[in-house]
Amino acid sequence: MARNSLIADLPTGAAGALTNRNHIINGNFSVAQRGTSFTSTDSLNNDDTYTLDRWYIVSDGNDVIDVSQETSTIPTNGKYAISLDVETANKKFGIAQIIEGKNCTGLIGEEVTLSFKAKVSDTSKLDNVKAAIIAWSSTEDAVTSDVASAWGNEGTNPTLASNLTYENTPANLSVTTSYATYSVTATIDTSSTTNIIVFIWSDVTDTTAGHFLYITDVQLERGSNATPFENRSFSDELKRCKRYYERLDQNAGNANYPIATGVWYQSGETMVMMSYAQKRAAPSITSSSADFMRCYYAGGSQVTNEQNPFENITDSATRIVATMAGDGTSGQGAFCQMNTSSEYVEISAEL
């Protein structure tokens, strides 16, 4: 076989299934920069709230489910899944991911297939799981993330918010208590589509607290057939996730994790630059507290006394002009670290 004929000699459809066919990021739920458990504490499990990287809750109210990164109830040869634990009975719930407009190239106007593995802990109540491929037909990357404007009765697909359209007709997938692969196919033919959203949910209004829905290996690809899940390296997946969200904390190193360098602008103020992975757009940046950062000078250090001193924010860096709890030495260089292991900085450009 001639070298140049390799792709031509592959079975039909195999050439397009080699690599980079999955438009979902973190489809195996391996990346968990925000943490691995999301409960009503600090409202981390509210409707329209991001959890495991790139995935957010869509639910009929807040505290409907607890979310966690599952490491025990997983498919054969798998490592992670997302666990959705019913907390408030008799409410519909699910998860969704918005695909950035740039990454919808090659999908809009084409037939696509969404596939995933799923199981439930009990089919007596969690007996109607559905999946949707949704088109957004308004300003690119300005998607209404809370896709359900009205949830409706059991078995009735939620009414979508304005400018959102079901591209398939969601139906009960009859998910069982054993992992299996499920798929839906649609053509992205809504006029003026700019973004695509995938939405997987329980359409049941008679649920029981303590029942679980598990999902993993989510894939959206061009074509009419589901191919085996594309397992990318963890470093690749993490890099893709950081385009949308990044958390600098002790998990990035330790309590002494360096975050910025610059100068002591005045004796009680530093001006330093903090860099981060390039985001899709200028992000929002928040710190955990006013004393999140400790800055050093020759002979000593001081702690910040300002919670969000971020200025001139770009897609890859920000200036931090921070008042300090005490005086440093004006004109000296400043080397700044996370103050304690409980402090963090969140950088978000989520859709």
Oligomerization status of the protein chains: single chain
Cα shape: elongated
Q: Tell me the structural class.
A: mainly beta
**Order of helical and strand elements:** EEEEEEEEEEEEEHEEEEEEEEEE
Strand order, sheet with most strands: 19-18-22-15-16-21-20
Summed over residues and divided by their number, the pLDDT gives a mean of 94
What's the CATH topology label of the largest domain?
Answer: Jelly Rolls
Query: What is the CATH superfamily label of the largest domain?
Result: Galactose-binding domain-like
CATH level 1 name of the largest domain: Mainly Beta
The overall strand count is 23
Terminal Cα span: 47 Å
Q: Count the helices. How many?
A: 1
Give the low-pLDDT segments: 1-16
How much is the radius of gyration in Å? 23 Å
Proper CATH architecture of the largest domain: Sandwich
Largest sheet: 7 strands, antiparallel
| Total number of domains | 2
Give the helix proportion (percent range). Answer: under 10%
